[in-house]
Amino acid sequence: MTEKIRLTKLAPNCGCAAKVGPGTLAGVLSRLPKFEDPNLLVGTETSDDAAVYRISDDLALIQTLDFFTPVADDPYTFGQVAAANALSDVYAMGGEPKTALNIVAFPNCMDTEILGEILRGGADKVLEAGAVLAGGHTIQDDTPKYGLSVTGFVNPKNLWKNYGALTGDVLILTKPLGAGIMNTAIKAEMASEEETAEVLRSMTCLNKYACEIMKQYRVHACTDVTGFGLGGHSLEMAQGSNKTLVIHTDQLPVMNGVREYASMGLIPAGAYRNRAHVESTGYLSTAELCMEDIVFDPQTSGGLLLAVHPEDASKAMEALSSLPLPCAIIGEVIDRGEHALVIR
Ligand code: CO
Ligand code: CO
């Protein structure tokens, strides 16, 4: 009998924790030529979730690409997570996914049934998104990798950027935190079955539903919380908006068990990279260390972080409460002070 292959054992870093650090990336990207086109509504300068190109006054194309190493042992689940994560960047712009292409790396020696299951998981999420899977590209590689390139539509007037937050805005987060810490606990074979099921349920959940609800309200800025953690993505929103974002750690939705694992030091390396990056620009924290670790924990297929008009916040929260995952008001936007990010 052959031993069942554990996909996550094949990768040193899994999911968005496999991302190259924000500091490293910025240095390399700054040396590339500058592209200018009046129709390029969102390019690389603001580190936004996707590129946006205007076709006409009421139509713009959203293009994004995301792939990573296994974040779940079950190939079908891994496919679902990778696809939900890639589709998320379209939702983070307030858009609708239309077409998707598979990006695949797979070892020659591995059972192709596993590949079939990864692709089936991805295809099911594309179907749920209401988009079409239109092709892809596969290469041979020792570590399996999977993701999607997604194209979506948005009306440029309703485009959400990762900046534009206004003083007084309320910050809403639409998924619980702790995916990176929980995946570390799963790899260490410490997580319970229920805890494992909870993180997988969160990572496979499409941000489509939160996006559709929030389109009814005045959203001034939005991004999805992924590899740079809540802290890293909040800093980008704060800097781009020239505001200070205040995060209240006692209001954060956190997955079960994550606080305990964080206190035990089960922190993925990406969390330290994320903290170091934010530290270099200066942040103020009075939160306990384990909550800070959760703020910087790299998320895979995390929720949307939205800066919302204060008058809309409670109505939006009421609508969001119909979703299966916990959403919460986690802080507010204030005038830019000494620190762009304040963690309480
Ligand atoms: Co994103
Ligand atoms: Co991305």
Structural descriptors:
344 residues, alpha+beta, binds cobalt (II) ion
Can you write the helix and strand succession as a string? HEEEHEHEEEHHHEHEHHEHEHEE
Helix content: 25-40%
**Termini distance?**
53 Å
Shape: globular
Q: What's the alpha carbon Rg, rounded to whole Å?
A: 19 Å
Q: Which structural category do the helix and sheet elements fall into?
A: alpha+beta
The averaged pLDDT comes out at 93
Q: Percent of residues in beta strands?
A: 15-25%
Main sheet: strands, sense, barrel: 7 strands, mixed
Q: Can you tell me the residue ranges where pLDDT is under 50 for at least 5 consecutive residues?
A: none
Hetero groups in this structure are: cobalt (II) ion
What's the total number of strands?
A: 13
Given the structure, what is the number of helices? 11
Going across the biggest sheet, name each strand in turn.
8-11-7-12-9-13-10
Describe the structure.
With 344 residues, this protein is α+β, with helices and mostly antiparallel strands. Helices cover 35% and strands 24% of the residues. It contains 11 helices and 13 strands. The termini are far apart. The chain binds cobalt (II) ion (CO) (2 copies). One cobalt (II) ion binds at residues 49, 66, 89, 226.
Q: What's the topology here?
A:
Elements: H1 22-29, E1 40-42, E2 51-56, E3 59-68, H2 75-91, E4 96-106, H3 112-129, E5 132-140, E6 145-154, E7 170-173, H4 179-187, H5 193-204, H6 208-214, E8 219-224, H7 229-241, E9 243-247, H8 258-263, H9 269-281, E10 283-285, H10 289-296, E11 304-308, H11 313-320, E12 328-335, E13 341-343
Parallel strand pairs: 4-5, 9-13, 10-13
Antiparallel strand pairs: 1-2, 2-3, 3-6, 4-6, 7-11, 7-12, 8-11, 9-12
Bound molecules: cobalt (II) ion (2 copies).
